[in-house]
Design a protein that fits this description.
- 58% of the residues lie in helices and 2% in strands.
- By secondary structure, it is mainly alpha-helical.
- The protein has one domain: Hypothetical protein, domain 2 (Endonuclease III, domain 1, Orthogonal Bundle).
Length: 178
């Protein structure tokens, strides 16, 4: 409450099941950059990220060379963390390899929840965990596939953002909608 950008994100995107590979990749990258920072910081820079990272086109990002990476590290509109920028490039490559193996990244990631969102029943959002046993499992599997900056906390946030888990409070108007 109180920030129109944050409220719009909550009211229209957060927790809505996402099955589109491009959107799943975008959220994975944004969650990667969010690690150690607040989500509102990333939201405020989201359009800059889209522009800087070719609208999150993983096919293009996988081809980035050092010159492109260096230019990203000079871009004041994004979070200029060298490890996270490099991870974005390697994650695009790992993402495409996972797509090739499973037919789509969506199939791969949603198979962890049998294609259906986990619906929690939190009275207070502060009761929601930062990680779960399942986010631990997914994190380990992603790391095994070559993904970087995909710790359990990042993965649980990704699960929440993409609707794999519904962590809206039970009294939230979005709880039953998503």
């Amino acid at each position: 409450m109180g920030d129109p950008l944050y409220e719009a994100y909550h009211d229209t995107e957060w927790g809505v099941p996402v099955k589109d590979d491009s959107t799943l990749f975008e959220f994975l990258i944004l969650e990667t950059f969010q690690a150690g920072l607040s989500w509102i910081t990333v939201l405020r820079k989201r359009e800059n990220f889209r522009e800087a990272f070719d609208n999150f086109d993983y096919n293009k990002i996988a081809q980035y060379n050092q010159t492109k990476i260096d230019s990203l590290l000079q871009n004041p509109g994004i979070i200029r963390n060298k490890l996270k920028v490099n991870a974005t490039v390697s994650n695009a490559r790992a993402f495409m390899a996972t797509q090739k193996e499973f037919g789509s990244f969506s199939k791969y990631i949603w198979d962890f929840v049998n294609g259906n969102p986990i619906k929690n029943e939190w009275e207070n959002y502060r009761d929601a965990p930062a990680t779960t046993e399942l986010s631990d499992i997914i994190s380990k599997d992603l790391k095994k596939r070559g993904f970087k900056f995909v710790g359990s906390t990042v993965i649980y946030a990704h699960m929440q953002a993409t609707g794999m888990v519904n962590d809206h409070e039970v009294n939230c108007f979005r709880y039953h909608e998503v």
